[in-house]
Amino acid sequence: MLSPVTDPDGAPFWRYAAQGELRVQACADCGEPRFPPRPCCPHCQSFASEWRRTSGQGRIWSYVVPHPPLLPDYAEQAPYNVIVVELTDAPRIRLVGNLVTAPDAPLNSLSPDRIRIGAKVQAVFGPTGLPRWVLERP
Amino acid sequence: MAGLRDATAIVGIGETPFAKRLPEDEKTLACRAVLAALDDAGIAPGEVDALASYTMEETDEVELAKAVGFGDLTFFSKVGYGGGGSCATVAHLAAAIATGQATVGVAWRSRKRGSGPRPWRNTTAQLPTPAQWTRPYGLLRPVDEIAMLARRYMHEYGATRDHLFNVALACRNRANQNPAAVMYDRPLTREMYMTSRWISEPLCLFDNCLETDGALACVIVSRERARDCRHTPVYVHSAAQGLPAQHHGMVNYWNDDPLTGPAWTAARHLWKHADFTPQDVDVAQIYDAFTALIPLSLEGYGFCGRGEGGAFTEGGALEIGGLLPLNTGGGGLSEAYVHGFNLINEGVKQLRGTSTAQVPGAATCLVTAGEGVPTSALLLRS
């Protein structure tokens, strides 16, 4: 499986995720959240930023179900789902992830016909340190 | 300054055969396409002084120039973002020639995407997307990234798989008229489309472009010089690139309005500098790496309103005789996928009156580069 090839902007996200926290970058001056993280604020051009804790709640904005040809580790689990989640705390922050039945469940643990745009989801953290998502009402 | 409007013209086009696998390497194919385009124009290689291609092009200017015998080059540029750069190659040359930096420009693309590696399989190279936020979750390929937007588009606007089929069918029907098209002898039916295998739901096999080996080139000169060339000049009427504010490439999930993209930005500039409007376009060559890019582009370039791109495809609108005949050589979906360069050459053929699926009396043509990445577009006229 691919793990994140991170950079100085993105590294804090993954550090917090490893601790089981979903945080997003926000401007320390004007307060605007932004994603993906970047060196300065596109609203006020400030270089000061903070990592704001979120509730980890969101709604499914869209999803796909990939089928082969895929990289081998992913082909083994295909078809699986990839979702985009709109965060409740910051609706314009959308995170790509997987909808699973439990924090350590495989990518294909949930049947694709259970997925609906708009469904409420909650972030959970598995052994890999990647944020994953479970249905609020399974 | 007079600007770009009709200041330059495409006077030569050339291409190799298209196939899943060609025996020659990319450099050789590039040389063949470029020499064919120069021969078509009636211009000797020694007169070429400007070049433009894509950053993903593997044959560099030095290799090409010394192989085919170009003269001294005074302008050369490469445009980024994969298929988003296709029309910009012509636009850069038009600007260079209109401003006196060069006199004869060649744009080209040579690619063995059919028999060569799939770029997304390389896990060390960072594709032009912020990969750390997407790839670990199995959003691996361009088709996965675009399918995510396609699903949302269908949800918001009620577009259907039949709308996407209309796009695939129009391209296939034109390919069935074009002996050079990879899918020349392979008709498509609705049943084939609806029962084909998924690639990334909601997109199936026939929503994806071909994987092709091939090369193409075209020659650009000033309008004055164009009158002395072999064929009727095809004028570069208007040209634009487009990188919208807060755009994120194919994973455009992180701004206020992810279902608008670079087409909207390019279109605003393109029409501002044109003497005609979308309603006056006789034929369109719209970048079709995936069928789902067409409804978005139809909206972006002003052929219909927001959310109407799916419905626009109904009633044979994209066929010959329809509202907007589309990708008349077969496009990336059914002629060849060479990063959209075949769309440029097909636009020229239409305005010369020599297409294998000729739109009667075609005098204006829109050509676009990849939507969903920083893009470019051309308005051509005869």
TrEMBL record, chain A:
Residues 14-48 form the ChsH2 rubredoxin-like zinc ribbon domain. Pfam families: OB_ChsH2_C, zf-ChsH2. SUPFAM superfamilies: Nucleic acid-binding proteins (SSF50249). Residues 51-125 form the ChsH2 C-terminal OB-fold domain. PANTHER family: BLR3430 PROTEIN (PTHR34075:SF5). This is OB-fold domain-containing protein. It comes from Streptomyces curacoi.
UniProtKB/TrEMBL annotation, chain B:
InterPro entries: Thiolase, Thiolase-like, Thiolase_C_2. Residues 256-374 form the Thiolase C-terminal domain. One of its GO terms (molecular function) is acyltransferase activity, transferring groups other than amino-acyl groups. Gene3D superfamilies: 3.40.47.10. It comes from the Bacteria. Pfam families: Thiolase_C_1. NCBIfam families: PRK07855.1. This is Lipid-transfer protein. It comes from Streptomyces curacoi.
